[in-house]
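Hi W., the uridine-diphosphate-N-acetylglucosamine complex you wanted:
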Amino acid sequence: MNKQNISIVILAAGKGSRMKSSKAKVLHAISGKPMLYHIIKASREISDDITVVIAHQKEAVKEQMQAFFDDINFVVQDAQNFPGTGGAMKNVTPKNEKVLVLNGDMPLITSNALQGFLDTQADIIMSIFDLEDPSGYGRVVIKNNQVQYIVEQKDANEEELQTTTVNAGIYAFSKAVIEKYIPLLSNDNAQEEYYLTDVISMAKKDGLSIAPLLVDEEHFKGVNSKKDLADSEVIMQERIKTKWMEAGVVMQLPSTIYIDESVTFEGECLIENGCRLTGETLIVNSHIKASSVIEDSVVKNSDVGPMAHLRPASHIEDTHIGNYVEVKKSSLKGVKAGHLSYLGDAQIEEGTNIGAGTITCNYDGIKKYKTIIGKNVFIGSDSQLVAPVTIEDDVIIAAGTTVTSGKVGSGNLAINRTKMALVKDYYYRFFGTK
Ligand code: UD1
Ligand code: MG
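Structure:
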């Protein structure tokens, strides 16, 4: 999409008290990224001049956004003296003649959904939608087919509360409108805040043109509570999964699968029900079986699960990972680890078989240590590999062995079981005969 001659201002300075959280509202995550990230991402597709207004937890908001974007302007709201969405606009000086103002709590917005604001001509273009349950939103009062004013729920009378047409929270103003009306806002209302929405009635009185743009909740939903957050997550997940299914990924019961927006797939992949894939995970030509969790890992030409857990920095290639196997910060290439294992800080080479119940003892309570296992090694079931340890190529570790030697040389068998005793007829002596 071409960048337009438009400035974008995103209001992200509010506390978000209805979230009932110590974290600033705009930092709450949708599909693994802060809400504000999604809004900036959509904005950058249509504009080069983006200003984010911050105040509450301003350092955290700025820092987290700068980790993703290096070309955003930040403006600090004097929230003490000028609280509210109108107060947030006070220090903003946009470059372009047309200014799009977005609430920072609308993570479902896309650049396509903003196109209507770019195509319409008026002094003010404002987004509206009709809702069966309008609660929480500002009501838009329309008379003679013309927008008259917006009234916030807390200030609305009985009749106004019945209105089901609501303000979606995105506006396009001419720069002149901002310069003229923002300084004129007052805080004479229920919340004693400077409402950006009051610009509408003032402009209307002065005979300016106000164009309402009918939008859909799917893109313009505001997130004020944890319930709104969960509802928005469902919509975002639907989008992410549809995108990947269209790209060729097979998903079984997709409504039970969760995928972060940063996850990528290549080639032919099959994801079974109940899987959770997060962070910078890359899945290539692989089959992820039911209820597996994969975090910040790479899986290539492999099958994983059911009920496997790949924790961050795992690199799995040409490998079979079976049920109840946990892998962390390890690379496995051409390996079979079929059942019930913990493989942490390990490097395991081609042709090696990890028996059921094998555990890398990578932690001594203070530090973590590496386990290196070479090619064509056979690790018998229920073995513990006490790290740091290197097991060279072509080694057999007998079932039940605890490897404590630090190194097992090529061609060796390691075995340290205690000798089994057979006590004749002990059963009958203990339990008696029938
Ligand atoms: C706002 C609108 C309401 C609309 C709804 C749509 C106003 C007065 N009301 O209400 O008409 O229906 O959005 O979702 O604008 N913010 C600041 N500084 C502040 C206060 C808020 O930057 O002092 C930011 C918040 O971080 C948030 C955005 O502005 O991203 C909207 O604030 P919020 O408190 O969610 O407004 P709503 O009550 O939802
Ligand atoms: Mg809101």
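The domain at 6-214 is CATH 3.90.550.10 (Spore Coat Polysaccharide Biosynthesis Protein SpsA; Chain A).

W.
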